[in-house]
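seq as requested:
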Amino acid sequence: MAALFPQGDTVVQLATGFIFTEGPIWHPTEHYLLFSDMPGDVRRRWDIESDITEVRRPANKCNGMTYDRDLNLLVCEHVTSQLVRESPSGERTVLASHYGGKELNSPNDVVCACDGTIYFSDPGYGRVPIFGLEREQELDFQGLYRIDPAGVLHLEADDFDVPNGMCFSPDGKVLFVNDSTRALIRAFDIAPDGSLTNGRLFYEHIGDGDLSKGIPDGMKIDEAGNIYVTGPGGIWIIDQNADYVGLIEVPEGVGNMNWGGDEWRTLFICASTSLYSITVAVAGARESYMPARNS
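struct tokens:
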């Protein structure tokens, strides 16, 4: 932990008073953070100059968000059970809504590879009260999906209990996906066509089995291959060898996190009613929307 936080930094509360925050994403050129307050059905923006502003209400109780290479915003919506793309000009396009003729459960988290391939998880959280719209689940599994650059939807795995957060390895060759109720992280090799192969267990026993203390939810990775995953007490850090490194203590239950700020070394943390941040010595691993340094 000393190498990641040489000054012994702790989390700083940036804002509070929300219901349940999720889906943080940093704009790489305009330098602001978007995040969702799911039960409040609102999307908000934070930046240093204007602090908190509201950008969309209703927001379809959106959850995970990311940008693609062209800085279109990819949004997981709980209420509509859709993955959508929002262009900088405001045009909205549905990327995925059904599989096998049945409505998706509720897209939850999303990442976009350098070639434009999109991966997203589809648990059932958006079909329960408060966090979504209560209704019966049409699919009999909770899946992990891929959308290829041509826009075709593929089911990559249907054997998760609750697929949730995900991140690429720093070289973009492995996709890590956690399973919330099983309290573990799986790894998949990414084939040249974007399909996932060689699924395997990477890390298990995130916590002591008491899910009320915190579960694997949001997950990110740094340039050194350290995985940051939500869990009991805050954010667990697991190194590239699947060894436990330590815990970023957060005073509230954490839902998600993402990199931003100068040099991508600020970890923005969505934790229940509040937004926090902490500076890390190692920068976040670069994704398709992230330039080498903020411009």
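The radius of gyration is 17 Å.
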